[in-house]
Every structure is written in C-alpha cells, then in structure tokens.
Write a structure and sequence with these properties.
This protein is an alpha/beta fold and 349 residues long. The chain is built from 15 helices and 12 strands. The chain folds into 2 domains: 172 residues, Rossmann fold, CATH 3.40.50; 158 residues, Rossmann fold, CATH 3.40.50. 50% of the residues lie in helices and 15% in strands. Strands 9-8-7-10-11-12 form a 6-stranded parallel sheet, with helices on both faces. A 4-stranded parallel sheet has the order 3-4-5-6. Strands 1-2 form a two-stranded parallel sheet. Helix 11 packs across helix 14.
Amino acid sequence: MVGTTPEGRGGVASVVSVLRRHGLFEREDVRYIATHRGGPRLAKAAGALGGMWRILLACLGRRPAVVHAHVASRASFLRKSLVLLIARMSGCKTIFHLHGAEFREFATQEAGRWLRRWIRHTLERSSVVIALSESWAQFVRAFAPGAKVAVVPNAVPLPALPAQAADEEGRVLFLGRIEAGKGVYELLAAGALLAGRFPGLRLVIGGEGDLQGVRRRAAELGIAERVELPGWIDAQARGLELARAGVFCLPSHAEGLPMALLEAMAARKAVVACSVGGVPEAIHDGDNGMLVPPRDADALAAALAAVLGDAALRARLGNRARSTIEQDYSTEVMCGKLSAIYRELAGAT
C-alpha cells in the first residue's frame, strides 16, 4: 500500500490510520510505503525519492501480488502514476484508490492533452479503480470507459458516546483545510447573518490554511469575537471538539467523501453540509443531516438557523447520523470490501 505517511495530516492519512488500527495490515499482510510527508520542500523531496526507491526494490524483489495506491490530484497523481507503472511492469496487480475533491477539475480542466491521456491510461490500466461514492464512480466510468471501478466508501471507527450530551448550544464546528474551496467564507457570511439571532453563536474553524484571511474577513463582518481558529486539531483534540459542538458544518464547493464529515456523524452530531461529491450519498436532507447548495451563504444560514434553534431536531439528526455510520460506513464494512478486492486480485495472478 502506497500513500502519505499515516502520521501526517489530511484525509488520506486518516483513512490509512483507520485501516491500520482495525487490523487490515496484519490480516492481509500489507506493507505500507510512504511517498509523501509534510515539511519543507527538501524533506518532501527526500521522502518521495526514498519511497519510490523502496517501491522499486519491493516490486523487483518481493513481487507483491497487489500494489494499492492512494491517489489525489496534481503531484500526488504524478507520483502514484509512476508507482503504478512500476508495479504493472513488475507483473503486479494494481489498485488506484481515488481521493481528493479536486480530481475532476484536475483531470478535465487543468490537465493538458497529453496529461489527460496519461490520466485516462493510468485509470484504465489499473486492475481496479476504487471510488469513494457512486457519483465518483460514474465520473471515472465516463472519463475512462475502460476502467474497472469498485465503490468503497471511507469509514471511521465508532467512538464511545457520553451518557449525557456535552454539546454547547450555538457552537458550530468546521474541520478541514481553511481555504475558499471548503466554503469557510460562506460560513463566515452565514455567521454574520445569524449573529443577531443567536447570542451564543461561536464558529470554530479548525485546520490549517488561510487563517489570516479568515481573521480579516471575520473582522470586516463584525463577528471576529465569535470566531475561533485553533489551527490543526489532532485526533484526541478532535474528539473533544466534536463533543462540544452543537452542529458540524462542512460547506465545501467540492468533495470526495470527507473523513471529517463521517467522524462528526459517528460522534452523533447534527450536520449541515453542501450537496457535492459523495456527501449526498451519506447525508439525506432532513433525515440524518441538512444539505444546502454550495456557494450559497443565505441557504447555509437558513439551515444552520433551523438546526441551532431546535434542540429536538439536532438530537434526531445526530441519532440518525450515528445509525448511518453503524450501518454503512463502519470500519468492518470498508475493511471487508478491501479484503475481498485483495483476494480476488491475488487469486487472479
């Protein structure tokens, strides 16, 4: 298995950590090789080169039955497409595990003619392409008709829940990369619309990114005192923040199937999110969360107001969200699907 370092930050690192903690590596004899790490450019380059060298040695020496690559856009795709090429030339079966909300834009708009052909070739030559949702699977089938696609949603462990709710009324939590594409500026605009109506409103925007831009915009909107920017939140602190939150909000412009969303659902939180990517396959509007169009601060404010102003609604949405994770997005379901793919491919070698 190839991807970013599991100790790193972001959705892929979270997925890999879940798989490792759940015992998939031991059960399926998985060796993990990282080709990406955080830090300065030189450290990143050294990590990529070292990872590629280890992959080359593994493919030429041990000849693994399957090489499973977690792939996002841009540099991630370029690294992993080379990994998958090496694996194919060594006679290994390959899995292209598609992550990243921006892959559609990368493949169809940013990539030039030759890169677009290489992306399509890599998808179609992979033994299996794993998509996080049926909507992403449909995109892959349309973009690369020769690809064999399987849908394996992300999964999260189910945390133990307190006997009594510890959430703070008016506390809205966002977790993710702090950038325009994640909808943080629509969240600020919605907060400004709601501030007069909800005296206890607090927007907790956790993650790395454009913190100065968020501070500046919050001040312009007159809600600076209502915005908290704790920075990157590790797994332990994330659990505490989820427990405190009254509502979890993810107003992204594009998504795959975000781990933060699933973690909030597993924590029995009412969720307000945008109907993009695989999100509508996990969240059914009015049943286990609230969905709004992307880039629409007014609609976001209306949905947040409905949830913040109704404790019974928050509880119902949170309970249904937890049930959804238990039934469809548990680690048992995800690991079972991956094991079945591994064994099918290994048996075909």
